[in-house]
Structure to design on (606 residues):
């Protein structure tokens, strides 16, 4: 299967799960509308797909862990809603549509983000207690693995990960770009959750330490590459394809990779990071092919 | 031991744990300052104490579950920070101090709240994996109990609980008070997390269904009483004792119990709810005395 078909197939699995999960909204309905608006705004589901591909690489059947993988998308979506708020990046457009607070107002956008973040942990714990799939899998101690997944995601999403990165990102606006701050922002704001995505696949497949270390290395490199490419696309990309206004990093005086190293060095860096990611999987069989192809695909992406 | 000594002793346990947990802040330090500012702003730790007292009622030693109980305070604190934001209740003072966003700015207040919410789940999952205390306790399946605790708290804090209640609270401002909306707000915004607090104590003590049902009934009634008394104090209380400006509900056109039923009926309702809470524990031994006394104490509180 080509990588595009693979991505499409896995994205459909995640989308179907999320649609059925949120198909019976309770009161107050406006809250669920706001949550669904951003959750189904055309996200590529990269993080869930990375978790599924990693689980597959480590010997599992992706259908066992769809709720756990999909929870990553709830966390990613919450982070976009909050990052776009007027008090933060003050963005009006996201994926070609008005941002959450432009449609539902600031209060609802904050609360929709809070609810999505909280729901992610509910989803994982609940499917851990009810899910028969994972229990039927070869895993020895599913409850312990699920607790590790919750710890992993919370660590990557919170003060030690994504939130810490966003704080540093805001602090660094208007200040002279420096390597240490830029590296901190990229590692925490983007790479942490992407690394956690592939790690939870390996954890749920009951992988040994060597495998988990290789998967982690893959995740860290792909995560950083992802952000470098994002920075490049913000300069070079086509607004219609990206769905948000290009050049916004420069206007907001964001610290970016091309801003510090120039475009050519940035492209070279992205290449190197993707090669490193693929090299980390050198001892894996053809089961790791989707992970390798995803890394290459991310390098080529236009949006 | 009198109830005041009991509350003080348990509060000290929770505070010591939280202080040692957050005593080695990582970068960016301003984020941890913002988190700590609100976490140590003088909260009474009612939710953690209810969890500890419930665990004790169900036969456990409170010291086994201090991290699980303390996580409730992280969630409560995050909800206060976000509720106070300009886009929400726009409050300048809380517990006699400037609100988080007045000190750290809106962006940092949003992110400090996000980080506290996320850290709560990290704390529970992490102590579940590392904690020896609970594993030494009589509980048969600690990992499964901890997953149930995570599910319970996420359900009570998210769209189906506290966040849903806050949305309805905002929607109801300026609209004619009605019983159904008021009941929805009180149940979701306040009672859900208080009910979860006592439920997690019972779950971690491996209680049977009958016990859990009685504890739940206690929690629901105490949770509603707590909010009715809050509404009364907002009208009658002394600004210095409460630490925020009294009369703020009326100015913000909040839907409140006294606003709908009058002060006298509200006091009667709070009395009834506390009696109901205590009645729910009628089959429990003297181990339930702290829970009974906490209910009475909440009725008498002045702040």
């Amino acid at each position: 299967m080509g990588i595009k078909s693979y991505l499409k197939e896995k994205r459909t699995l995640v989308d179907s799960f999320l649609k059925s999960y949120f198909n019976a909204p309770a009161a107050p309905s406006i809250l669920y509308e706001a949550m669904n608006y951003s959750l189904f705004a055309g996200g590529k589901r990269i993080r869930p797909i990375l978790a599924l591909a990693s689980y597959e690489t480590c010997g599992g059947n992706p259908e066992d862990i769809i709720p756990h993988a999909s929870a990553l998308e709830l966390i990613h979506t919450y982070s976009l809603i909050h990052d776009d708020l007027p008090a933060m990046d003050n963005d009006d457009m996201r994926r070609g549509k008005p941002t959450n607070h432009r449609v539902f107002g600031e209060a609802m956008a904050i609360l929709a983000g809070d609810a999505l973040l909280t729901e992610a942990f509910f989803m994982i714990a609940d499917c851990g207690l009810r899910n028969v799939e994972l229990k039927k899998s070869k895993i020895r101690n599913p409850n312990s693995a699920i607790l590790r997944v919750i710890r992993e995601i919370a660590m990557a999403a919170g003060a030690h990960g994504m939130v810490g990165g966003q704080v540093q990102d805001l602090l660094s606006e208007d200040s002279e770009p420096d390597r240490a701050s830029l590296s901190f922002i990229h590692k925490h704001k983007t790479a942490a959750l992407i690394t956690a995505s592939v790690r939870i696949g390996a954890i749920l497949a009951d992988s040994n330490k060597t495998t988990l270390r290789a998967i982690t290395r893959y995740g860290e490199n792909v995560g950083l590459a992802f952000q470098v490419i994002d920075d490049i696309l913000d300069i070079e990309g086509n607004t219609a394809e990206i769905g948000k206004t290009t050049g916004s990093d420069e206007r907001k005086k964001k610290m970016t990779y091309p801003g510090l190293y120039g475009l050519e060095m940035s492209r070279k860096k992205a290449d190197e990071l993707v090669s490193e990611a693929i090299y980390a999987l050198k001892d894996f069989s053809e089961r790791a092919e989707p992970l390798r192809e995803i890394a290459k695909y991310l390098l080529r992406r236009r949006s």
In short: The first helix of chain B runs from residue 3 to 21. The mean pLDDT of chain B is 94. Chain B touches chain A through 53 residues (CB under 8 Å). The longest strand of chain B covers residues 93-94.
